[in-house]
Amino acid sequence: MPADLLPSPHDLGLPSHFACWRQYQDQAVLDAVCSTKRFCMSVIPTGGGKTAFYIAAAVITGLRTIILTHTKALQQQVIEDFESMGLVNIAGMNAYRCLALEPGGELYAMFKHTHAPSHIVGCDDGPCRSGVQCSLREGGCLYYDQVRTAKAATLVVSNYAYWMNQGRFGRGI
User: Fold this and answer.
1) pTM as predicted
2) How many CA atoms lie within 13 A of 91 on its CB side?
């Protein structure tokens, strides 16, 4: 399939700073889109436009796509570039505040003596991790709500550590 058949990044709905395809980027997108394999891997050099490549292939195929990054900084860069296209971010529990333990939260009174008033408790240290019942887990918890959103999304970004731990110790995304 000739690379000139690929719509422009703009026509695919990519943000305006992705104005045109970089060298070999369009062919990489077409190779991925035309692949019959479940997983597709491409080797693209630094600055070669990997993120736009992933997103374009996801948009064209309409298939659920999970973009994994090595660092949280790269994850944040992908979010900033493509959140407007419906990209959903999911990170580890420590990236989300435990609302149940904040002043006014349903478990604050029970656990307020365990943390300094100025200390923000992450969901990774939330009491529900120790078996304490918390109604926010089913709706209203920043972390668990985001997990549900990510599971329903077509386009998701995460980091390798979170993805691997969810596959090994959790229920996956």
Assistant:
1) 0.84
2) 18
